[in-house]
Amino acid sequence: METNARNQSKKTVKKVYTPFPSPQPESQINKELATGEYFLKASQKKRQKMEAIKAKQAEAPTKRQEERNKAFIPPKEKPVVKPKEASTETKIDVAAIKGKIQKAKKRKLGALTELYRGVLAKVETW
Q: What are the boundaries of the region Disordered (predicted)?
């Protein structure tokens, strides 16, 4: 029997029963008492806020400059593969190739293959 995914009912996982409620989050006053800010004067609180803002402002230009400099960093280049010079390094045995061509003509195999035509053209240019 085939069933569609749409027709299948999703099984719900029951959450674990906890008889106690979750703990209440700390109030703002309790947080200030823990850090010691509660007993500071208004001017001292204001000074601390200004110092925090100035520290953030000092970091912002350096981050901005780093983002701008990312455009000027060149991507990693792949190593350059030098092309091989096939004709100058490998010497072709001209006499052997001419002999093969002559044998092919004697056997009357028909026209020369493309390989022999290309080699013959190179031999004639020498």
A: 1-28, 49-88
